[in-house]
Amino acid sequence: MKQLSYDILIIGGGFAGSTAAWHLSRKGLRILLIDSKPWNRIGDKPCGDAVSKEHFDNLGMPYPEGEQLEQKIEGIKLYSPDMSTEWTVRGEGFEINAPLYTQRILKEARDRGVDVMDLTTAMRPIFEDGHVRGAVIFDRRSNEQSEVRAKVVIEATGYSKSFRSKLPQEFPVTEDLDERDADIAYREVAYTKEDIEEPGYLKIFINQTTSPGGYWWYFPKGRDKVNIGLGIQGGMGYPSIYTFYEKYWSQYGPDVDRNKMIVKGGALVPTRRPLDTLVWNGIIVVGDSGYTANPVHGGGKGSAMISGFCAARTVLDAFERGDFSSASLWETNICYNQRYGAKQASLELFRRFLQRLTDEDINYGMRKKVIKEEDLLEASTTGDLHLSVAEKAMRVIAGIGRPSLLYKLKNVSQYMKEIKELYKNYPESPEGLKRWNAQVKGLISDFEKAMSK
Prior knowledge:
Strand content: 25-35%
Radius of gyration: 22 Å
Helix content: 25-40%
Low-confidence stretches: 388-400
Shape: globular
Structural class: alpha/beta
Order of helices and strands: EHEEHEEHEEEEEEEEHEEEHHHHHHHH
Mean pLDDT: 93
């Protein structure tokens, strides 16, 4: 078997892995990135393909350009189940061609010295003395196995978790996913029969009948092309997602010409707080494998970029120290939770609240403004749901017809605040993880009891 030696092995070239490689390039380190897909499909994932502009600005990442940018986003239009209420939430972003953008980032990293191998999988970890020391990889082009030794492995295998799942179960980063904390998503990209009227606005349709525990989306990719799909909550015994798609797609995309389909596919999307720890000895987990997607809308590209950025920054510091233990890599957790994870944990509770609502609750809440556009904007951008004394009084009046809805809204607001504080005060070292984790689980248990009343 061929023996290879690198400083860093990155497994997965999607948004998280490519961001890490991009930030680590030109730092004088020997880096190998592998991806199981062929080069022209690296970065392809069945999702809405929308990314907020702020992520590129905050992380110093280049904007998509040319064919990578399919539509500039001006905002989102959200529709109630009965379609009688429409909310508009403004915000800049991009609807992208994900493979083209990811390949651009990887090419730039490769030009700066990163080795990139497509059609290559990590078969198993090299695990010695309680540390991940690399991986045995298989190159499908040459049909050869190689043993890759590395100081640190960045695991970015997406929802498959195909590498970290093979680690010893006592490793905290092997934490599994409850199926109810995931959405099953399916989408098609196709041309429309006529020009789209407002291509700068993404459309989201909430309906517990047509997409239980999730939503439908209609995301324009220019004037005559659209990404249309849905997500439904996993672990609930619902029929296959394709059954929902075939039954209801024309309700949300009557202008879509399925005879002119470009691509289709499905995926599992984690919709919970991040892994309790993204790191352990010799390994950092990023992107969907680390459960970094937004729990409410399931978008994961921006948060994947954040996790890749935090991993790269921490790895550079670890090389300065020559230490790749969990303690040395711990800053990844603190960086990620400060930038996104605390909001993400808060939004998990908001997601659990929303999934309990009936279509009638949602119709009433949106129409009477028991829940408002501002709530959605504040929750999605900060993870907060603030209700002033005057605001509470107004909502009592609005919520007379559904008192339980207002009661739950007050409770979820308080629990969101508490869990966000817990994540903002994430333990400074691995020694504090067990106690902190018990606090998180206790708070979630209390929340579930409160929501069940």
